[in-house]
Design a protein that fits this description.
The chain is of the alpha+beta class and about 200 residues long. The chain contains five helices and nine strands, in the order E-H-E-H-H-E-E-E-H-E-E-E-E-H. A three-stranded antiparallel sheet has the order 1-8-7. Strands 2-3 form a two-stranded antiparallel sheet. A hairpin with a 2-residue loop joins strand 4 and strand 5. The longest helix is centred in the first third of the chain and has 28 residues. The protein is flat. The termini are far apart. This is DUF2589 domain-containing protein.
Length: about 200
């Protein structure tokens, strides 16, 4: 026999894990509209690198152990600054496609190239689990203060849906729905749409 509380908790954990997997897929889908940008070195990284280069040149020229030690320390500081910058948030830029947009000018028809962010052409549609239905036959019994559930058995010759005795059909129905866009995402998409409208003449 199964503890009914444990059964419900196991179903709840499974639903939470499925929802987390769906959320990770949604984030992956969002990143499909963007690409990372190589950031310029921060002032700290630039200064540490310049110090390391200067110390290395001085050590090479002097051949002094103290100068070599200072150069090694400067290189270590530069490596630490670079590592700290890489741990920072990655900068993303929208993936775009160039479209030739025809328009009329005083000189006659002309073609204007418009750079269209893909997220403005095909906005993201996130999915979420809105409902889960689990249907099965259970034998319920009281054990102390808990409710226990077991799978009912049948006679040796009985069959259900072509399966041998002792098995009962169980159905699991998961309903997926569209997740409403967050305000931040709506603002981002609207911003790219405004930028697109600004590129279109007329």
């Amino acid at each position: 026999m199964l503890n009914l509380d444990g059964l419900v908790a196991a179903v709840q954990r499974s639903v939470a894990e499925a929802a987390n997997a769906l959320a990770a897929r949604n984030i992956e889908l969002f990143h499909g509209y963007f690409e990372p940008v190589e950031d310029d070195p921060s002032p700290e990284v630039a200064a540490a690198t310049a110090d390391a280069l200067a110390a290395s040149e001085a050590a090479s020229a002097a051949g002094d152990p103290e100068a070599i030690r200072q150069a090694a320390e400067a290189l270590e500081r530069a490596a630490g600054a670079l590592k700290s910058q890489r741990r920072a948030t990655t900068t993303l830029r929208p993936k775009t496609t160039a479209i030739q947009y025809p328009h009329m000018t005083r000189e006659g028809p002309a073609v204007h190239t418009v750079h269209v962010p893909l997220i403005a052409l095909a906005p993201i549609s996130f999915a979420q689990i809105t409902e889960l239905r689990l249907k099965t036959d259970l034998d319920l019994s009281v054990q102390g203060e808990s409710l226990a559930a077991g799978v009912p058995t049948r006679s040796a010759g009985a069959e259900v849906d072509g399966e041998a005795s002792g098995r009962r059909p169980a159905t699991l129905e998961i309903v997926l729905g569209e997740m409403p866009s967050s305000q931040g995402l709506r603002l981002i998409v609207e911003g790219y749409e405004r930028a697109l409208r600004a590129q279109i003449p007329g």
